[in-house]
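haha ok so turns out i had the wrong file open the whole time. this is the CORRECT one, sorry everyone. sequence first:
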Amino acid sequence: MARPLSIRLWSLSLLLAVAQPAHAQPSGAQPPTGNLRKAFRLCDARTFVAMSLARAYMTGGRQKEPVLEMVKNDPWGRETAETLFRLTDAGKLQHHAEFAADVLVQCAVANTVPVGAPKNQVRLCLARSDVGFYLHADRTAGLVQQEAISRTAARLKPREVYPTALINAVANAVYRPEKIPDVRALSSRMLWSCIQARPPGAASAASR
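then structure:
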């Protein structure tokens, strides 16, 4: 069944944004000031630390030691990991994007950074950034593009959350450059492009 035109147009706008070497920036009409840019970069960085910790813990058998090793020299990271363990083990998290979205929203509120979307939309966009993460991992491991696409599509469901067109376009962004792109920059670009595009009505894989 064909997807609604609004979904297809949103997907196209996001795919074009992901393919461009643009830098992520906070939502809003005015160019960010120096202080706002610094606060945005802090929140962006903390969001992806939280995403990495939560993904590792929630998809890696809830092994605490490898997660703590990731942030052994970072007091904020260790505190965040302990919060992750507590919330996950108490059954309060269903998807790693939930935890990262909470970290982003809390940081944005504390530093007056305009996110530009409600928390449920942020969760969805963070969940979709997994597309780039897994495709990047597969290219790094030496897999050819079509195999990486098939593996990513099998990992990430449902299709309403991870559209085939999105997977294909991000695969091009990962595989076309001669040098493997930076996964952190790719994930950040995907997140903020998705937030600014405001996809219409897609179900979230990271809903509470």
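The longest helix spans residues 34-59.
again sry for the mixup
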